Amino acid sequence: MLVDSPPEQRAETAPAPPTRRAVRALGLLLSAAILVLVALASIAIGAKALTPDQVWHGLFHDTGTYGDVVVDERLARTVLGLLAGAALGLSGAVLQALTRNPLADPGLLGINAGASAAVVTALTYFGVTSPSGYVWFAFGGAAAVGALVWFLGGSRGATPVRLALAGTAISAALYGYLQAVMIMDDAALGKMRFWTVGSLASATNSTIVQVLPFLAAGTLLALVLARPLNAVAMGDDTARALGANLNRTRALAMLAATVLCGAATAACGPIVFVGLMVPHVVRSFTGPDLRWILPYATALSPVLLLGADVIGRVVARPSELQVGIVTAIIGGPVFIFLVRRRRTAQL
Amino acid sequence: MSGSGQPDTSGSAIKNTRRSTVNRLSAENVTLAYDQRVIAEQLSVEIPDSSFTVIVGPNACGKSTLLRALSRMLKPAEGRVLLDGQVIQSMPAKKVARTLGLLPQSSVAPDGITVADLVGRGRYPHQGILRQWSAADERVVQESMAQTGVAELADRYVDELSGGQRQRVWIAMALAQQTPLLLLDEPTTYLDIQHQIDVLDLCAELHETQGRTLVAVLHDLNHAARYATHLIALRGGRVIAEGAPNDIVTADLVEEVFGLRCQVIDDPETGTPLVVPAARKARLTAAS
Amino acid sequence: MKTNRVIRTPGGLSLGLDVRAVTVVVLLLLVALAAGVVLIGTGDFPISAGDVVKTLLGNGNAGQEFIVNELRLPRVLVGLLVGASLGLGGALFQAVTRNPLGSPDVLGLGQGATAGALVMIVLFSGNAAQVTVGALVGGLVTGLAIYLLAWKRGVHGYRLVLVGIGVSAIVTAINGYLLTVSDIVDAARAVVWMTGSLNGRDWDQVWPLLGLCAVLLPLVLANARGLRMMEMGDDVSNALGVRVERVRALLMVAAVLLTATATAAAGPVSFVALTAPQLARRLTRSPGPNLLPSLCMGAALLVTADWASQRAFGADQLPVGVVTGVLGGVYLLWLLVTERRAGRI
Questions:
Q1: Per the CB < 8 Å rule, is C159 touching A336?
Q2: Is residue A155 part of a domain?
Q3: Is C345 a member of any domain?
Q4: Does residue A149 form part of some domain?
Q5: DSSP H stretches of helix in A99-204
Q6: Is-contact C102 C160, C-beta < 8 A?
Q7: pLDDT of res. A5
Q8: Fewer CB within 10 Å, N side or C side of chain A?
């Protein structure tokens, strides 16, 4: 009441003037360029550092030299990082628009917990031990929890608060189960303690092939939803008045977020904060228009994920820090900073 | 009020600044700011005793901020707010709460609380660990509910009430505080016209029959002109004019404060000033 | 439904009593004590409830006396005290943040204590006492960090919850890291600790908890009336003469101390702090922080859950935290469904 809304949230009532659109398009190109640089760095940096020449050689003139082998190994990891990062960022942006809560995160809807519970079940009761084997379980768990949250959250009458509460409740029950299994089964504990921190290290080509169709479909759906979600962001009544189909938009948005986040989690374990942080940072220079937020998030989220992965490889040489730990340690302070910067009236 | 009527025998300058005003509540050269955002600078305001003072002004002119400072919700960055000659921040919280009540713009009723319980919470500053609910508390709560016309709602849940009833309940809570000064931040917002008038009538009655000093922030200039005995017009954190509505409300003032061309005529009911905005066409031709 | 009674004395003293709340407190205390007696009787050498009471009163035979007083009584007392501390701490947090999700679980205090304990287990292979100290320090440091980070011209309830979630995520990542670098034996020990367990608790854990509760409870209750006013928002309570920031800071410190000590003694038993105040509130049907009912509810819940886990899975198979975690989640879901039916969310 006493504080005006910040300028960037007001800006979008009118279509952006041409110059601003040009700046944003340019920024998007720049983001893509940064992404390429980070991806190359991710191939070059590691236990054995490569020169740009060697990277180039390995990528385009693979003749089986030592450097080429290293490039091959890191390539899968980098590609997975690109895909998973983009998926997490997109699903975060979609969820934030859907719940109208700028602090929403895929973990909030229980997706991580669903994937974790499914993986521990696979390990303990079905004897699945290879990462490419439990990808399906993780994905199934994420999808099942996504559907359950949607249903318990009130399906057609879902509101942001209900969805968040349902997610928290289901996470709680599933983590109880997870801990019980880990206590009783040392083998499960041995695997799960690595899986639950989130890592790109176990990436293989087969994992990528497994999750790729889901990521592609989810990405497409999310991008199509940009316009209806823009309307939903105005509040239920206004959105209805603007002619948006609230229920369909919500259901599809939930589906897109679950597919994207579920597939990414299945491939590399629960990674927090990428989905929360990147859309936030992006919003500070694009404004609230999802037609810009989504592409930017797609380009910049992998930058964060791969960047964190590279940092994790460098700081703890000769071993490495899992990317999930690095993103949380970078992301946590950023999150707190964002919370502090927001004015109380908006919270 | 003890001591306020005694003549100042020492006559020293220091004593004078400590008691620079005869009114109970005043702000002296206050600078009001949220973080870095300065709302008002070097603002001085006196609230005449036993008046029904209304603060008006355009959006973001600092009227609610001023009210928050007067009720010590906001500490001035510079300057001071005096209550009975003392800097308000330096006084014991409960003592202030027995002298000055505030009805904030947005208040949350706890889930599942009844009207009587909510009004009863207004007795907090008069209570202690060993004096939790005296016969006087009970009586004052009944009186406050009767005055605001919510006595028959006493056992209802606050969540079930309509907006107008709820506002009356909150006013009853502020009344139960039994303070000679009562500050109200936009008490009529979100109410329909009938309930707006209801609430304002209630305020006028409190002022006239009980001699309480009321300070309210109001949006509607015509309501302000009709009910206030003292009007303070703010713009950009500065007082543009203050005084009785009949003396200060003119077409020029409204244009200066709100940037609106208008006529000021006599209210056919009360004779107070009535602001009639100029017709759209007239304003358009004036602008071009 | 008006259940308030007032006791007035000629000297101007007056005390307000909510009959329903008092009844709830008494009943919950009885439940907690009864569950405690049953729990003492449960184990490899079952003892009947009558014999347990007889032994507690000093009339049992030597064998039973050893089992009851040396082995099982301290464990039950730790359970009661931890449950009570968590229930009270949770009620304080939820009242201060004005948010039913504002429990120490969500705010990351449990995670902070876990980090302290893990550092001791994984990096120093510490003994039980060192782990307890580590957990205590971890919980207190985390609580302080959250408070300071959330401070910005006063602490706003919602900001406190969000900062807590952020801190919690960072600390969770650190805990995950510590688990990955530990060997499997330490990891197993750490996971049991992280779940919250009453196994093998003895008199050494009872005394600090009891002392702390004895000091903090009067302090908290003395400020309960201010806290009750704060339900109506900072502005209204300020206007009523409550020193909002001071009351809040004081009660936060008390809540952090209670939670950290309880966690140090039994591990981060999840959801007692979250559910106890909510359940208590539904029983008393009165607004307000319901501090004493929450405290009794926490004690009753934890001891009952411990008994349930021993009955269902056999003695010392699954720690009590698993039961409270699953129950808590189910309870939240139930809450969600009923609240939805009542049209409140």
A1: no
A2: yes
A3: no
A4: yes
A5: 111-125, 131-152, 160-184, 186-195
A6: yes
A7: 37
A8: N
Residue A178 domain-assigned? Answer: yes
Q: What are phi and psi of B81, to 5 degrees?
A: -110, 130
Structural domain includes residue A266: yes
Rg (CA), chain C: 20
Cα(C100)–Cα(C310) distance, integer angstroms: 30
Token pair belonging to A219? 């990405």
Instruction: Report the CATH number at residue A337.
Output: 1.10.3470.10
Count: domains in chain C: 1
Q: ipTM of this model?
A: 0.75
pTM of this structure: 0.79
Helix (H, G, I), strand (E, B) or coil at B41: strand
CB contact, 8 Å: C271 with chain A? yes
Residue boundaries of the structural domains of chain B:
20-287
Chain A residue closest to B34 (CA)?
A3
What's at B88, amino acid-wise? I
How far apart are alpha carbons A121 and A144 in whole angstroms?
A: 14
Q: Between A256 and A74, whose confidence is greater?
A: A256
In a domain? residue C144: yes
More confident residue, B249 or A177: B249
Kindly determine whether residue A168 and residue C191, on different chains, have CB atoms separated by under 8 Å.
no
Q: Any idea what the CATH number is for the domain that residue C293 is in?
A: 1.10.3470.10
Domain count, chain A: 1
Residues 6+ away with beta carbon under 8 Å from A216: none
Flag whether C15 is in a domain.
yes
What range does the domain containing A230 cover?
A: 66-346
C47: left (phi over 0), alpha (psi -120 to 50) or beta: beta
Partners of residue C232 in chain B, C-beta under 8 Å:
107-110, 118, 121
Q: Which of A1, A3, A4 sits opposite B105 (nearest CB)?
A: A1
Give the residue among B35, B105, B112, B103 at the shortest CA–CA distance from B75: B35
CATH architecture, domain defined by B20-287: 3-Layer(aba) Sandwich (3.40)
Alpha carbon B196 to chain centroid distance? 15
Q: Which residue of C has its CA nearest to B116?
A: C2
Average pLDDT by stretches of 10, chain C with 345 residues: 64 72 90 90 80 82 81 89 94 83 78 90 84 90 89 72 82 86 84 82 85 92 88 85 88 91 87 85 81 93 88 73 80 71 53
- Which residues constitute the domain of residue C130? 4-340
